[in-house]
Amino acid sequence: MKLICIAGLPGTGKTHLAKHIASQTGAIRLSRDEIRAQMFETPDYSKHEKEIAFGAMLFLARQFLRQGRDVILEGMPFSRREERDAARELALEMGADFELIHCICPEEVAIKRIASQEHPAADRNVDLYYRVRERFEPFGHDEQPVEIDTSQTED
User: Fold this and answer.
1) Is residue 155's pLDDT more than 60?
2) How many domains does one find in the chain?
3) Between residues 129 and 73, which one has the greater pLDDT?
4) Where are the beta strands (DSSP E) in 108-150?
């Protein structure tokens, strides 16, 4: 049983990679953006709303892990250490292996993707890319993410 957490700036291909992994492995893909869109008729993208959706995502992940299913968490940058730690702690609690993946690509590729794609989060725009980049907490030595360059993927 495995819990995979996909981190990265907006437009770096997290959703594309998560869908690919899910289709190849049968893992359950949970997207905070999609969960939020289902929970709130007109989302305001506040911190409070994001925390509620994140909590719901972790709740669902726990239920699927309890069933012995592999789970992929995505739909958010996992830009803060506390978010990544929450996912890691859930895996530990449930006896699941934990894998942290960090999607990267050149800025111009991410910006082009953001400008040309529809997304469940209406606040996903170029400004969001720069705001998340500014607040992204570096990975600790103990986190050791698998870094995947998504420059060549079509998402």
Assistant:
1) no
2) 1
3) 73
4) 146-149
